[in-house]
Amino acid sequence: MTYKMIVLDMDDTLLMDDHTISTRTKQALMNAQKMGVKVVLASGRPTYAMLEAAKELRLEDFGSFILSFNGAKIINFKTKEEIFSSTLSPKTIHRLYDISKREQIWIHTYVEDEIITEENNPFTQIEQQITGLPIKEVDSFKDTVNVPAVKVLMLKEADRLVEVEKKLQQELDGELSVMRSKPYFLEFTEVGVTKGTSLNLLIQRLGIKRDEVIAMGDSYNDLAMIEFAGLGVAMGNAPDDIKEKADFITDTNMNDGVAKVVEKFVLEPASV
Length: 272
What we know:
It is built from eleven helices and 14 strands.
């Protein structure tokens, strides 16, 4: 199979634990792009927090794309055209706020490149460290969030969030997409919006077949694209239930797992 697109989650997949791209992984991805293979970043991160990695991989030069907010936005990185966007209404966000209070867990969302929360907490601080976005602590979440937002996060220790995830997936079935991106991040987007559905939209636009796509990830918000792609790859650091759904399991994010897939399935076949 000749692959035409490589789709990559960022945190704990493309990026090492210090949030950098290894030299081997960067070189493999640059070589793939020089062969005409599209490299697409697909992350739960806000768009702003994906720009540095996109620039480092020269996605603009190669005319590639980023899928931010778990696929709620698709952006042509060369033209900066937003070719897909999905948002939650203030009414929906306020409902999620009420649910977070009922479940006694933290909540935040994004307004104008700021993280909005009523109560700063260790997990919102982790999000700030990952994204680089400032935290705006407000007196009233509902009064502040009066415009649509792309997604909402609920946050708590992993054991508690697993319980809440199962409960809310049932309660909000058919209304919202509910999935964890990290053990302590539970993410909410418009129903039907996942990395997988947005990837499908993108390849249709580009005339690429799903069999020609490699998708790599490590967490539950990556599962839709791992299952959709012709070659779905789980990182070595992924949970076992993600690995069970993948076509191939690679090494960890700290041991050049992405590079090893690109070399094995893209670069080495091309050299034969």
